[in-house]
């Protein structure tokens, strides 16, 4: 059926050019709200990558298919927080997680962009992939409808812990939405591992940006 083939999309330049005295602020509009993101040049996680734009755009345009209203959403590797902010605007209970050194900028962006809205207030928490998952996020208490991940795969050594983290949180009924720019053979190797563990569908491809958006769910035995 036609729904099985991925949509081909363009990443829309959804940012609003503004004269800014700071080189590090980007303005975006999603779901009718202007979002101002402060980037940080010190950290990888503090720049808006193309996968984040792709997933934000997809969530905004596919609210019937993936209705986030009142759903529990966990973002891993949240970076600047753009995707978490969009998920909040769309009505989700969001927990945005990343490494300790990224949390200050992440918290700043999230609180700045959600404070005056009548939405569920997002939570920002430390999550180091593969570490302390049972202690910090025991499955008896923490179950999520959606796990969001964007541009979490690039040249780094944490791919095994990342896969373990995805597998840990992807319980029955959880949907993992992962958008990534595919640049290196290691990216494709990781994709293969994801396909081996999960039932995986490519929802959308953004050929100009080499971004793929995938949906993964726990494989039914």
TrEMBL record:
Keywords: Membrane, Methyltransferase, S-adenosyl-L-methionine, Transferase, Transmembrane, Transmembrane helix
CDD domains for the chain: AdoMet_MTases (cd02440)
GO biological process, one term: methylation
Gene3D superfamilies: Vaccinia Virus protein VP39
Residues annotated as transmembrane: 73-94
GO molecular function, one term: methyltransferase activity
Domain of life: Eukaryota
Database matches in InterPro entries: Methyltransf_16, SAM-dependent_MTases_sf
Name this polypeptide is given: MT21C methyltransferase
Organism: Casuarius casuarius
């Amino acid at each position: 059926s036609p729904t099985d083939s991925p949509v081909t999309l363009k990443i829309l330049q959804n940012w609003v050019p503004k004269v800014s005295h700071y080189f590090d602020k980007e303005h975006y509009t999603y779901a009718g709200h202007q979002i101002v993101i402060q980037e940080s040049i010190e950290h990888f996680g503090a720049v808006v990558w193309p996968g984040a734009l792709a997933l934000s755009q997809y969530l905004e345009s596919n609210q019937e298919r993936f209705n986030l209203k009142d759903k529990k959403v966990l973002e891993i590797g949240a970076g600047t927080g753009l995707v978490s902010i969009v998920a909040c605007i769309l009505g989700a209970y969001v927990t945005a997680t990343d490494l300790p050194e990224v949390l200050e900028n992440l918290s700043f962006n999230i609180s700045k962009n959600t404070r005056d809205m009548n939405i569920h207030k997002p939570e920002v928490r430390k999550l180091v992939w593969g570490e302390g998952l049972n202690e910090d996020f025991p499955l008896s208490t923490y179950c999520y409808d959606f796990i969001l991940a964007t541009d979490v795969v690039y040249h780094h050594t944490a791919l095994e812990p990342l896969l373990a983290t995805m597998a840990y949180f992807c319980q029955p009924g959880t949907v993992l939405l992962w958008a990534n720019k595919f640049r290196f053979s290691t990216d494709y190797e990781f994709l293969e591992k994801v396909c081996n563990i999960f039932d995986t569908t490519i929802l959308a491809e953004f050929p100009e940006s080499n971004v793929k958006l995938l949906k993964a769910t726990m494989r039914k035995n």
